[in-house]
Amino acid sequence: RTTDSMSDAANTLPGQSVQAYQAGAMRVVLGANLGDPVGGADAVALGDIYRLKPEARARRLMLRLRPDSGPAQEIAQGSDIGRPGDLIIPLALLTLIAPDGERLVVVTVWHEASLTSYALPLSPVLPGMDYTLVDISTDFSGLRLSDMICVSFAAGTLITLPGGVPAMIENLSPGDLILTRDNGPQPV
Fold first, then answer.
1. Helical segments of the chain, H only
2. 30 CB contacts (<8 Å, ≥6 apart)?
3. Of 69, 93, 123, 183, which has the fewest Cβ atoms less than 10 A away?
């Protein structure tokens, strides 16, 4: 195959969708970095309190694994951000806690083509809610953002079991095998 035909084939691979906020939409409202946007490990401080602006709007970021690029991912077709093939580089894994104790993990990433950083919350983030930064990590070993994206299913959603038999989500238990698109049968 030619390089062009391999590139064309790569651009047709499916992506995984995640919500992305420009880093400036989530800022320190109390702490050492007052007013600063969420960012990489060297730009944040434990104990800082972050808040997503009420007017912040998430954009769809479509990601797919980029072969031989470590923890980097690339933008896939259908993304509201960038162009297919653009490099997305993880900056930090941030763990924040809401006042009610709910944990929020945010991956901060760098979009190389636009020189812009984004916050990718891996669970719902509430605009106007204060979140205290309690852990900062840069251990990206094995990190595949497209595998980390949180998905939730409503009662009655049919999940395919190995062998092709569907089961309602509420009938599944930890340890049951389900069929995944990318990794075959996997335990719940």
1. 3-11, 145-148
2. 48, 49, 130
3. 183
